[in-house]
């Protein structure tokens, strides 16, 4: 069976920029193979209520300055060299070419609202992550990527993100069809939360699984248990430890 890698999703600024950086760094140290970094956005696309709540926490104090977002992405890339780093965002955050051009280079950029068969309308600073639903992949019209891609993110289920959703019965065939069109690393996402999900993805031929809602929910639970009077440094420490323990357990089980 293919050796699987486990990736996690987390939104920059959730529990503050320092808190989110600590969580992502701890996940990388614990063995996460991919860090999917969400850029905070008031209307996140395709995300279920758990990840939407993370965006709301990130933006609770107002929009995070773009310079701070870019600096945080650069810090993730600098300090998490053992993991691939991708950015997930909506095209609205990259509408300005100057703004888009300031985003640091990472292993891939996933723009959620670009159609699978259309090139990016803005120039990206990093290769594109080809975001595909199984409904698209199983169509007769499914073709080659419209531009070079570094990674593939293929949905396990149709709809929005959320833990504990049963994968589609067409996953193995969808993986095969994607591999006929690109040799880029293929990650499955949406609805994965358990070791059984990871094993199933391995059987379907994927290279890795991205876990989002289940991880964000655990960080939210741990963060909610910290006293509001606790110093910021203590909050970062507790959340970082929790992230490392959670990822380590999932990777090693």
Q: What is the global morphology? A: globular
Q: How many H/I helices? A: 9
CATH topology assignment: TIM Barrel
Count of individual domains: 1
N-to-C SSE series?
EHEHHEHEEHEHEHEHH
Q: Tell me, rounded to a whole number, the average pLDDT.
A: 89
Q: Per CATH, which architecture?
A: Alpha-Beta Barrel
Which superfamily, in CATH terms, is the homologous superfamily? Answer: Aldolase class I
Q: What's the level 1 CATH class?
A: Alpha Beta
Instruction: Indicate the structural class.
Output: alpha/beta
Distance between the termini: 16 Å
Q: What's the helical proportion of residues?
A: 25-40%
Number of strands: 8
Poorly predicted ranges (pLDDT <50, ≥5 residues)?
159-165
Strand content: 15-25%
- Largest sheet, order of strands side by side? 4-3-2-1-8-7-6-5
C-alpha Rg, in Å? Answer: 17 Å
What features would you describe in this structure?
With 253 residues, this protein is α/β, with parallel strands linked by helices. It has a single domain (5-128, 195-252), classed as Alpha-Beta Barrel (TIM Barrel). The chain has nine helices and eight strands. It has helices at 16-29, 49-58, 66-79, 97-101, 134-137, 171-179, 195-203, 213-224, 232-252; strands spanning 5-11, 34-38, 84-89, 108-111, 128-132, 149-155, 185-189, 208-211. β1 (5-11), α1 (16-29) and β2 form a beta-alpha-beta unit.
Detail the topology: elements first, then pairings.
Elements: E1 5-11, H1 16-29, E2 34-38, H2 49-58, H3 66-79, E3 84-89, H4 97-101, E4 108-111, E5 128-132, H5 134-137, E6 149-155, H6 171-179, E7 185-189, H7 195-203, E8 208-211, H8 213-224, H9 232-252
Parallel strand pairs: 1-2, 1-8, 2-3, 3-4, 5-6, 6-7, 7-8
Helix pairs in contact: 1-3, 1-9, 8-9
């Amino acid at each position: 069976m293919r050796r699987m890698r486990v990736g996690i999703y987390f939104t920059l600024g959730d529990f503050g920029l320092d808190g989110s950086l600590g969580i992502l760094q701890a996940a990388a140290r614990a063995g996460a193979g991919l860090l999917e970094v969400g850029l905070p956005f008031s209307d996140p696309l395709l995300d279920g209520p758990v990840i939407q709540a993370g965006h709301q926490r990130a933006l609770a104090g107002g929009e995070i300055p773009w310079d701070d977002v870019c600096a945080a992405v650069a810090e993730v890339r600098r300090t998490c060299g053992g993991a691939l780093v991708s950015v997930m965002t909506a095209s609205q955050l990259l509408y300005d070419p100057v703004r888009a051009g300031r985003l640091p280079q990472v292993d891939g950029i996933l723009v959620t609202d670009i159609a699978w068969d259309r090139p990016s309308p803005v120039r990206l600073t990093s290769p594109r992550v080809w975001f595909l639903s199984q409904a698209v992949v199983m169509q007769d019209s499914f073709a080659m990527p419209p531009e070079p891609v570094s990674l593939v993110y293929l949905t396990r289920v149709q709809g929005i993100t959320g833990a504990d959703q049963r994968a589609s019965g067409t996953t193995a065939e969808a993986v095969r069809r994607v591999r006929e069109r690109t040799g880029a690393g293929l990650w499955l996402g949406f609805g994965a939360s358990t070791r059984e999900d990871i094993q199933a993805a391995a059987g379907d031929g994927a290279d890795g699984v991205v876990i989002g809602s289940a991880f964000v929910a655990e960080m939210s639970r741990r963060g909610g248990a910290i006293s509001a009077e606790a110093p910021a440094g203590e909050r970062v420490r507790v959340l970082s430890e929790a992230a490392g323990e959670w990822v380590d357990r999932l990777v090693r089980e």
